[in-house]
Amino acid sequence: MAYLVAAVFGLVIGSFLNVCIYRLPLDQSIAWPASRCTSCGRELSWYENIPVLSYAALGGRCRTCRAHISLMYPVIEVLTGALFVVTYAVFGWSWLLPIRLAFGCAMIVLFVIDLQHQILPDEITLGGIVVGLAASFVAAPGWRDAFIGAAAGGGILWLVAWGYERLRHQEGLGFGDVKMLAMIGAFLGWKLMLLTLASASVLGSLTAGVLMVGGRAGMQSKLPLGTFLAVAAVFASLFGAPVVEWYLAFYK
Q1: No. of H helices and E strands in the chain?
Q2: Is the whole-model pTM more than 0.85?
Q3: Both 69 and 174 in a single domain?
């Protein structure tokens, strides 16, 4: 029953994340007005806002103008539902559960927005730094690791961006990536932040290699680092602790 509740609650939150993903890049309020068709502007009825089921019942089209509704909406809802189930399975009923759920939801929003628009909204990154640091006083990683993680996360990428710009005379990293890694450090602490950065770098390199082999990217092509950071951060949040312990065991 607990897993069912987590899944349903996750589907509902996923519907809200879709609103954030659509409106934040447009600098629109996520609270007002009510959800509406992005094509004809008609306000949606309550039964058109049921996660996944409404999309299936409407055949992926607006009931009024018959415009296509992006498949991304039910995918985000299902993904968020799965995130809630897995997070509950890992952390159970604890102080860490709502904190890591909020963090995971933020990563989903940042993943999609960076992939689509190559921006990382300050409302999430800067706000996330504050929330992560505040949460560290009541749950892991603890305030010391959180503050070190935020400072080191932002500092590392800032130095990389500064060095690349001085060397190549062009921007290599956006400042949004700097703030995002600082947020990750605030929520996860410095150890899991480093794991996230290493994992995102490997994932980004592999993706770039595949795209280059397929002729879909070149040496000067830009890839959204925030997208890879989001994937790596969710993995680190859920499964990173035993990975870090395994790695550190080699030095004991």
Answers
A1: 8, 0
A2: yes
A3: no
